[in-house]
Amino acid sequence: MPNDWKQDPRLLRLSKEKLAYLESFSEKVKHSPKSELLPLLLQVSRQNPQMNFSDEETELLTDILTAHFSPKEKQQLTLLRQLSCKLSQKGLS
User: Fold this and answer.
1) Which member of 2, 19, 41, 58 has the greatest number of CB atoms within 10 A?
2) CB 48 within 8 A of CB 21
């Protein structure tokens, strides 16, 4: 995976802790097969409950994760995220 994500201007707003986590996350993504990437993303909040990610930060994680996905795979992930958001909203009602 190229390191061009490190040039993303959204990184300027991250704490040092979150930036270090993104570095670690990026390394895991580099060495993981595609079939393990979605579970890797879903583990982010469970592994670090004290580190809350905003929607923008989650989008950045997703961008890193999907850098080498095909358009179809990116669309599938988008649909899955939308479904997840809808389900979590229903759970809050």
Assistant:
1) 41
2) yes
